[in-house]
Design a protein that fits this description.
single chain, 6-stranded mixed beta sheet, Maf protein, 40% helix, alpha/beta
Length: 191
């Protein structure tokens, strides 16, 4: 006879620790909101300065994904006592002569399960593309073109270009929720 798996009530009630592989307040805030939106329970979300081990401005899906994966993995290596580790990495790519921007999200847990997702994409204006092509990181190019300061820790390109209709936190939060699907529906995503 198959009995239902006995749940550990104390484990369910314990506050879970989530480490984000960045000290960027937007990445920490969107992760916090996504975990609280996706699960019942209490989560403490903290940022940790770790390397992405990729270029300062990742180019293409492969490098951008690798940066997000490395941020989650390096966070786990530095702080293995946590329950979850999250990496978020913004990148750019060329499509038909234009430049698109997006981010990859990777979430890991103690069991070895990995969830991943990518944000929607949007295309950058020519003035920003020229600066990025000249070697400038996207956040710096945003600041220069739109006369801002440290926009990547604020609304970012997506917030600036949509006049705030979609801010960077909302943009990343949706992708974090999607990366949590293997944990939300864990019975369908065995390790």
């Amino acid at each position: 006879m198959n009995f239902p798996k006995r749940r550990n009530i104390q484990e369910d009630l314990r506050q879970k620790l989530v480490i984000v592989g960045s000290r960027n307040p937007i990445k920490i805030s969107c992760t916090d909101a996504a975990f609280h939106q996706s699960f019942v329970g209490s989560f403490l979300v903290e940022g940790l300065n770790v390397s992405s081990d990729v270029s300062q401005q990742p180019f293409g899906d492969e490098e951008t994904y690798q940066g997000a994966y490395n941020r989650a993995k390096n966070s786990k290596n530095v702080f293995p006592e946590a329950d979850y580790w999250v990496g978020i990495e913004g990148g750019i790519n060329r499509v038909d002569g234009e430049m698109e921007a997006y981010a990859w999200v990777v979430v890991m847990d103690k069991s070895g399960k990995v969830g991943k997702s990518k944000t929607s994409t949007f295309f950058l204006p020519k003035a920003i593309v020229e600066l990025v092509d000249g070697g400038m990181e996207l956040g710096e190019a945003d600041d220069k073109v739109f006369d801002r300061n440290n926009s990547k820790q604020g609304n970012g390109a997506v917030g600036i270009l949509t006049n705030g209709a979609l801010d960077r936190k909302e943009y990343y939060q949706q992708a974090v929720v999607l990366a949590l699907i293997p944990f939300i529906k864990s019975e369908h995503y065995p390790v």
